[in-house]
Write a structure and sequence with these properties.
The complex is a heterodimer of chains A (561) and B (159). Chain A is mostly helical and 561 residues long. Chain A is 70% helix and 1% strand. Chain A has helices at residues 16-45, 62-94, 100-122, 140-170, 178-209, 218-229, 231-246, 248-252, 259-272, 289-323, 328-334, 341-364, 369-372, 377-406, 413-441, 453-458, 463-492, 518-523, 526-549; strands at 256-258, 510-512. In chain A, helix 1 (16-45) packs antiparallel against helix 17, helix 3 packs antiparallel against helix 4 (140-170) and helix 5 (178-209) runs antiparallel to helix 6 (218-229). The radius of gyration of chain A is 23 Å and the shape is globular. Chain A starts with 15 loop residues before the first helix and ends in a 12-residue tail after the last helix. By secondary structure, chain B is of the alpha+beta class. Chain B contains one helix and eleven strands. In chain B, a hairpin with a 5-residue loop joins strand 7 (106-110) and strand 8. The longest helix of chain B has 35 residues, at 3-37. The termini of chain B are far apart. The chains are: A mainly alpha (561), B alpha+beta (159). The interface between A and B is large, with 68 and 63 residues.
């Protein structure tokens, strides 16, 4: 028998970082697909419609579905996109190749961790939701898998710093280019932020789930969780911001208005993202109100960079609209390229981000928080931020990034545009309903109300809002299917045509650059600012965490699902 | 730099000042309201041993007591209910709730009020409230605590 050896041509031999980026992005979108398919079931639950009995024995209960939905669409999906975007954009901008061995180490760690954590989640052995508050105790594999998954980001951070250092050595005295600067502050912020979760999981939850220690202090593990889990939302959000700052103005036909201000925004996120976690714990006993108030003040400060971003992005879009021939007060809006799915995704995402941000200020206010804490208001809020801006930003980016990486042109552009409009409308309807149910009726979040006649009776006054949830769930399901049809049809086609895809990352030009800017020079002192960020964290967390660590009140674990 | 760019820079500066001013006002308002109306904010009121909380100490017998013109309620939040299952108070009197959990994290949330606090095993949560209007209030748990979480609902009757 003749053995025919076909030497397979490695299409990515010239650009292995493209292959790495493609793998990270596609794995992320697969996580979003599975997590997203479970989303409408959550919406139906808040419409009083219980689909879960039909899913037996694949998914055994509502809370298992919710755990999968939260972990896959929030923790897994945005992190993988971050690991792609925040390495690939700087690599292209600097014209350098990342250390590919380490880049692949990060990918395999992320995939391995994800698979290890997925087993107990799929077997209903880790139905602890994506907050996994002790003393609810998951199978050890859940914590181990999650730890490996999260630690893969430390490798990514190292890959970026190594590349940046190489550039610095070759370009002494020069200011770091914009998207690399953003990536540097981003990974530094995350290294600081992730410490809480890593300590909670490695020191307490893994030994506890293995039976090596009898109990953990639920207040302490919660506090460590939120140490990471507020900044984690910036970890998800900032890659979308980077794409909005460095690619959106160009794609829309204009320029970014100011490079130094964009640096200032990312510097502020480095400073203020972490010392704010107590605003998730306003309702907790055992934390002195003084510290909660301090975190409130710092939380208000972290609104500033987003407020500046709102201005900068809107102004850059106006510049684009006018460059496209738009005139007058509103003519520039009409002149934007609404038929470009990336531009459309960001415009709609930022529109949703405005009410989302206002609601975020409510959540971060010590007093107002009492009214809406843990009601459906909260998922209403973060589905505008993470579910709309972040997710749509990544969806929109995929429409040029996948063709750019693979050479395969985007198929079904019309369907891509329609999926974005439907996603936007579905999320708005759902968020409106969830905000209202939470604010007016105090309906608890992540509660299987559709499976409880007692709960449906207690919450009957919000029946009108519940109908909207069902409508939104259907719209979002259609949007999701349309989006993934376009994505997979594009990525899996065999047709490659480099003349129909963007050969380079569409980096924007800027109106006011960093040359001669004192602000840019000041921002460039990254390690100094990192030290200030550490000091802020010690001020905000040092004493309360010291008190908790020295007064541990251990509680045994329970499996109650 | 043309006139348009200059105008943009001017508005950008103005917007940053406006943002700073706005959050300063917010912080001042929050601080004032917490001082003036902050009594529904939870305070840590000591710790208990979860292994013995049901049998020893102030939570061995969950109850409402009238002390002078005010009430004190000792409440146990557990999977999937509250003890006492029903509480009665007179409108207009201050009620101080002392709450803990013998198992996992719950909340003690009285719908239609600002009382919405976390109950953490090993910690005692204290919160106080004056019910101005007579009627029936629902106490619900809004922190996932296991498969029966949605059924964790009890009542307060204010007369």
């Amino acid at each position: 028998m003749a053995v025919k050896t076909v030497s397979k041509v490695d299409l990515y031999a010239d650009a292995p970082e493209k292959k790495y980026t493609l793998y990270m992005v596609m794995l992320g979108f697969i996580a979003l697909l599975v997590g997203g398919l479970l989303g409408p079931l959550q919406a139906f639950n808040y419409g009083g419609l219980d689909i879960y009995p039909l899913l037996q024995p694949l998914i055994q209960n509502y809370y298992q579905g919710l755990t999968l939905h939260g972990v896959l669409s929030a923790i897994i999906f945005p992190q993988l996109i971050a690991q792609a975007v925040m390495i690939y954009l700087p690599a292209r901008e600097l014209g350098l190749r990342p250390n590919m061995t380490l880049a692949w180490v990060s990918f395999w760690m992320a995939l391995g961790g994800l698979l290890i954590a997925a087993v107990p989640m799929l077997l209903n052995a880790a139905t602890v939701l994506y907050t996994f508050y002790a003393p609810l105790q998951a199978n050890w594999a859940f914590y181990v898998g999650l730890a490996i998954f999260i630690l893969s980001t430390w490798v990514s951070a190292f890959v970026l710093f190594e590349m940046w250092t190489r550039w610095k050595k070759a370009n002494p005295g020069k200011i770091t280019p914009l998207s690399t600067y953003m990536a540097v502050t981003f990974w530094l912020m995350w290294l600081l932020a992730s410490l809480g979760l890593v300590v909670a999981v490695a020191v307490f939850l893994i030994p506890w789930s293995l039976g090596l220690i009898a109990g953990v202090d639920p207040l302490l593990t919660r506090t460590l969780f939120w140490f990471t889990a507020h900044p984690i939302v910036y970890f998800w959000l900032l890659p979308a911001y980077v794409l909005a700052y460095v690619t959106l103005p160009r794609l829309a036909g204009g320029k970014l208005i100011s490079d130094p201000i964009a640096r200032l925004v990312f510097l502020m996120f480095l400073l203020f993202s972490v010392p704010v976690g107590f605003h998730h714990q306003f309702a907790d006993p055992g934390i002195d109100p003084f510290w909660k108030m301090l975190h409130t003040v710092l939380t208000m400060f972290v609104a500033i960079p987003s407020l500046i971003t709102a201005f900068t992005i809107a102004a850059s879009l106006e510049v684009a609209g006018r460059a496209n021939g738009g005139k007058g007060w509103f003519g520039w809006i009409k002149a934007l390229p609404w038929n470009n799915p990336t531009v459309l995704a960001f415009i709609l995402g930022f529109l949703a981000f405005i009410p989302g941000g206002a609601g975020g200020i409510v959540n971060g206010s010590f007093n107002l928080n009492q009214t809406i804490h843990n009601t459906t208001w909260v998922p209403g809020h973060f589905h505008l931020q993470v579910g709309t801006l972040v997710t749509m930003g990544f969806m929109g980016t995929a429409f040029w990034l996948i063709p750019h990486l693979t050479g395969k042109p985007l198929v079904a552009r019309g369907l891509a545009l329609a999926s974005l409009w439907l996603w936007f409308i579905g999320m708005l309807v759902k968020s409106f309903a969830l905000h209202s149910m939470g604010l007016f009726h105090g309906i608890p979040r992540r509660t299987h109300i559709a499976g409880s006649p007692m709960a449906m009776e207690a919450y009957r006054e919000s029946a009108a809002w519940m109908v909207l949830n069902i409508v939104a769930g259907v719209i979002l399901l259609v949007a999701l299917l349309m989006f993934f049809y376009v994505l997979f049809k594009t990525a899996l086609q065999s047709h490659r045509d480099h003349s129909r895809v963007m050969d380079e990352v569409p980096f924007t030009q800027v109106m006011s650059g960093h040359e001669g800017s004192g602000l840019a020079l000041l921002c460039e002192r990254v390690w100094f600012w990192f030290a200030i960020a550490v000091v802020l964290v010690i001020m905000a967390y040092g004493i309360p965490l010291f008190q908790m660590f020295t007064n541990i009140n251990p509680v045994p674990g329970m499996r109650l699902w | 730099m043309d006139k348009y760019e200059q105008a943009l820079e001017k508005y950008e500066k103005l917007w940053i000042y406006f943002s700073l001013g706005m959050i300063t006002v917010f912080i001042a308002l929050i601080a004032y309201l917490m001082v003036a109306h902050g009594r529904t904010n939870p305070v840590g009121a000591g710790r208990v041993d979860v292994a013995t909380v049901r049998t020893v100490g102030e939570f061995a017998n969950p109850r409402v007591e009238r002390i002078g013109e005010e009430y004190v309620a000792w409440v146990l939040a557990f999977v999937y209910s509250y003890a006492p299952a029903e509480m009665r108070f007179t409108a207009g009197r201050r009620v101080t709730f002392r709450i803990t959990s013998p198992d996992v994290i719950h909340s003690f949330t009285i719908l239609g009020t600002n009382v919405n606090v976390k109950v953490i095993p090993g910690q005692i949560t204290e919160v106080s409230h004056v019910f101005d209007k007579p009627g029936e209030y629902l106490v619900i748990c809004n922190e996932y605590c296991g498969i029966g979480h949605a059924n964790m609902i009890s009542r307060i009757i204010v007369e």
